[in-house]
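Lab notebook, design round three. We kept the backbone fixed and only want residue identities now. Task for the bench partner: fill in a sequence for the structure below.
Input structure tokens:
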């Protein structure tokens, strides 16, 4: 199993943003390198925009994906609960070892 890590994208809720284009480039590069699992270490959105999460998940939909939330993802009190409920911690077993995301 090959694992790719990404973090701190700070995506706005705009599919035409440079951050979104960079995300697509990065995910395509991971796929070319036969990465099957992506671990996102947080800060998907710039300020908790739900649309940013939807954009992110649409790009990684054909990969095994595990995501943690970062401080930027929960900055907006109006969306905080929805963001926190969309992402959970994880435990992966790889080569007899565990990767734990909290």
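Proposed sequence:
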């Amino acid at each position: 199993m090959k694992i790719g890590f990404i973090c701190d994208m700070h995506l706005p809720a705009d599919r035409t943003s440079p951050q979104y284009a960079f995300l697509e480039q990065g995910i395509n590069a991971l796929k070319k390198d036969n990465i099957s699992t992506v671990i996102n270490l947080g800060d998907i959105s710039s300020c908790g925009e739900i649309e940013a999460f939807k954009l992110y998940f649409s790009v990684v939909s054909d990969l095994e994906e595990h995501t943690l939330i970062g401080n930027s993802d929960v900055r907006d009190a109006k969306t905080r609960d929805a963001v926190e409920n969309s992402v959970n911690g994880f435990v992966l077993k790889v080569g007899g070892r565990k990767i734990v995301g909290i």
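Keep this in mind before ordering anything: Helices lie at 18-32, 50-59, 80-86.
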